[in-house]
Write a structure and sequence with these properties.
alpha/beta; seven-stranded mixed β-sheet; single chain; Rossmann fold; about 290 residues; globular; binds S-adenosylmethionine
């Protein structure tokens, strides 16, 4: 098996029952939009809904014919954009077979979920809007040289460009890394993330993304929404702590300890501003673009 696929399955083919316990009923594995002062845990599901609805608006995806979600997880965006926002068809891409089972079981006839990498996907007709929500971090290997990485981001943006109609909206939520001095503890934790939990994943620098998208997309907005993701990680850690025994029964101590460790690393590296979580709103350039 391709090592990239193997690395993703290592993390994402832990049982759906475990992820339901960890993520709660929304089954979103990314940041949410909390209002200042809201109790994080009590309003987690609402915060996730707010994020999804804001993204639909920013991508101008309500009521359109075709939407693409690249790295679509358990299909919450696919379901919401069709059921609540009237998009006629939503296609999701994932490498996880257990996520596909979950999405198929939603029974939404407007949703089409494929176990397919972003670079393999071909479409007969262009999409009207696209999302990529905390998935890009998996798409480019840290083992590549800086030059090769930039080229790979370019390939990603070229692919999304080729799948969208001119003028279509594309909303990307991704962690990015700052150039900050690393202390020993952080270095150890980053090694754990890159060598064990998310083998080869690379958290991009903003300049790698902007170099990749130049000439293909107009940048509408770039916002740092660091706290959207760190808060979500803190809530998931609470959910896990509360039902730890059940989680261990499902997946064993080793898996639960791994999740606790990596979620805490993400939470503190975002809180301490080593990482960002950028919302990047783009419009596909090209003839006919509005
Ligand atoms: C952190 S999850 C985010 C899921 C979802 N967007 C959400 O916000 O809940 C990352 C997703 O990216 C998918 N993924 C990773 N590598 C991929 C690839 N090369 N092609 C397509 N999807 C991929 C995983 O299968 C997973 O569904």
């Amino acid at each position: 098996m391709n090592p990239e696929v193997e690395a993703i399955r290592h993390h994402y083919e832990v049982s759906n029952a475990f992820y339901r316990l960890l993520l709660g009923p929304m089954m979103m594995y990314s940041g949410g939009y909390w209002d200042e002062g809201e109790p994080l845990r009590e309003t987690h599901d609402l915060a996730q809904e707010r994020k999804l609805d804001a993204f639909v608006e920013l991508a101008r995806a309500a009521g359109v014919d075709r939407v693409l979600d690249i790295g679509s997880g358990w299909g919450t965006m696919l379901d919401r954009v069709t059921r609540v926002h009237g998009a006629r068809q939503a296609v999701g891409l994932t490498l996880s077979r257990t996520q596909k089972e979950w999405v198929d079981a939603l029974g939404n006839p407007s949703v089409d979920i494929r176990v397919e990498s972003w670079e393999e996907h071909r479409a007969e007709q262009p999409y009207d809007a696209a999302f990529c929500i905390n998935a890009l971090e998996h798409f480019v290997s840290a083992s590549l040289s800086p030059k090769e990485r930039t080229r790979r981001y370019q390939t990603f943006f070229e692919q999304v460009h080729s799948l969208l109609r001119p003028g279509a909206g594309f909303v990307l939520h991704t962690m990015t890394a700052e150039r900050l001095p690393l202390n020993r503890e952080l270095l150890k934790d980053l090694k754990f993330l890159q060598r064990e939990e998310f083998k080869d994943c690379h958290i991009p620098h903003l300049y790698e993304l902007t170099a990749g998208l130049e000439g293909l997309f107009d940048v509408v907005e770039i916002r740092n929404e660091r706290e959207s993701f760190s808060r979500a990680c803190r809530v998931w850690l609470e959910y896990l702590a509360e039902r730890r025994d059940e989680a261990v029964e499902m997946e064993g101590e080793e898996v639960v300890a791994r999740f606790e460790r990596y979620l805490d690393i993400f939470a503190y590296t975002l809180e301490d501003a080593y990482f960002n979580n950028f919302r990047v709103v783009l419009t596909r350039r090209g003839q006919g673009a509005s």
